[in-house]
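User: Good morning. I'm curious how zinc ion would be positioned relative to this chain. Could you predict the structure with it bound?
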Amino acid sequence: MLLALLAAAAIGFSPADADLAHRTAAALVERHTPRDPGTVRARNAALFIFDAVNATGPDARIDRFESAVASGGRRTFHNVECDIVTDASQPWVVLVSHYDTKPGVECPGANDGASTSGLLVALASRIYDARPRGLNFRFVWTDGEECIRSYAENDGLWGSRRAAARLADQKLEVRAVLCLDMLGDTNLVVTIPHNGTDALKPVVLAAARRTGLRDRVRLGRETVTDDHVPFLERGFPAIDLIDFEYGGEPGRNDWWHSTSDTMDKVAKESLFVSGRLVMAIIAELGAL
Ligand SMILES: [Zn+2]
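Assistant: Good morning! Here's the predicted structure, ligand included:
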């Protein structure tokens, strides 16, 4: 425990890391809006993330796949992945953020997609440099989290279904899948939706307490459809970390899936909080 504490204190997540997360999110929004699932624009956003990850040290790859689309035809999707391997015999921690935007609404997806995609770039860079590392890491930036009409077999969650299937095929031992979504909101309250692996919830709360962020984290009673669901369905321990209150007034969510989801609503300070929390969770899992 003391060792874990010391390691977390030494590794952490710095204001400079939050700055990288914020800059990456801003550039993604500026250059690649909108990023509809399974489109050329989404592919170009994937290439942007690929370059951003490689620029910080770790090696990224693009996982290109085709899938049927409930609204008709097939589309080509692009996940970005990055493995940081410490010791192949050890379990894995998987971190996930979608980068696509809600189709049909010209949504910049600054908070919903870009914020945590930038955060994941900064986390990958931080963990790549971190020593010692106890576990292996896979980072996945998913295409096609957003549904075109409503969530169904071939509508939404394409990228996470693909990533979960690949993990299962590779028979990797997974200690935790952490899905991050909408964590750049100026008024940040991180919710752990009800539909997540129960054993992981106290791990998050302990990490929040340890970093003085307990008042920023709540256990939700609601069920949320997000990228963690396909991992749960495959039997992997998985949770979603999401702030699903994103609007002009408390209790409203009117900036979500709208043209108002712009970078002025995304605070570097919130990405700093989210990054510290995730690094503490990872330490709590014995991975750092
Ligand atoms: Zn969304």
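Residues 102, 112, 146, 257 surround zinc ion (CB under 6 Å). DSSP finds eight helices and eight strands in the chain.
Let me know if you'd like a different ligand tried.
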